[in-house]
Amino acid sequence: MQENLHHAADEAVGLLRELIARPSHSRSEEATAGLLFDFLAERGAAPERLHNNVWARSEGFDPARPTLLLNSHHDTVRPAGGYTRDPYTPTVEGDRLYGLGSNDAGASVVCLTETFLAWRRRPLPFNLVLALSAEEECMGEHGMRALLPALGRIDMALVGEPTRMQAAVGERGLVVLDCTARGRSGHAARGEGVNALYIALDDIVRLRTLRFERCSELLGPVGIAVTQIEAGTQHNVIPDRCRFVVDVRTTDAYTNEETVELLRRELRSEAVPRSTRVRASALAAEHPLCRAARAAGCTTFVSPTTSDMALMPFPSLKMGPGDSARSHTADEYVRLPELEAGITGYDTFIEALRREAEHLG
What we know:
The protein is α+β, with helices and mostly antiparallel strands. The chain is 32% helix and 24% strand. The protein folds into two domains: 2-171 and 280-360, Aminopeptidase; 173-273, Alpha-Beta Plaits, CATH 3.30.70. Strand 1 and strand 2 form a beta hairpin.
């Protein structure tokens, strides 16, 4: 068993090095999609591909059984400023493997892939689908949004992101509002006009003190922060328009659409959401995914970052090797022992979920 683990870890390191060596910025992941497709095909997993998303199903797939999605993303952000190493040259120094995407989320990709290959022929009370998706960093239209309809019914998901192999059972959603207060211009010395800046400031004060009636048991209250403001053309002209931006961190207590409407009722300014698709995710404490995570020895927490869980209309849990604090940083790296721990942790989790499913009958 230990020999199999070492082999899987060595194979995961080799695959991760190859992923790093192929630039895969969001919307340009053709090279890594081809690599992952070929890797799975060579191991008899019969992969499929849609755009730059690659997926495979466990053997004996039975639509009558529930299906667990194993998902992570192989796209990356562009390199941060300050790199002292070539971001596309995988480099091992001590126990660290450096390279863009090594931590976010290449480590999860290769560990979930090894886990899927180890379990895809074994009897389970649920199906497995491995989906290695594109465009996660930009939540693009050809990533998870395009892939989910092609996968068919999914009942629950394990999403691979760097969490130090602890279990994120929730994450807040996000709505960005572009707000515009409208007034009437006039000469400042004559006290004429209607000052749009004052209208905006009144709205901003209201947002600072606003509390929603419902509060999420897991995620807490809706978070509201004004982050940008712009008004005026010159010192002696009353501004007839003031624009400001509101960052809203949503919860499962309200849908994103409900949140937008509640905010609009409170404001004199026009409020236009850029998008409402980044939804909150909250997993019930007694859901089998959560119970399996605890049985596997994982600590549960609420993640401060968003992921493709926001696009999944079914229960999901986020867990993977690496550390979120290293994501999107210069000289990104993952520790080699973290890869072995990731494979072991995923294996332990699926075994715990198998027991949960059999217990529930």
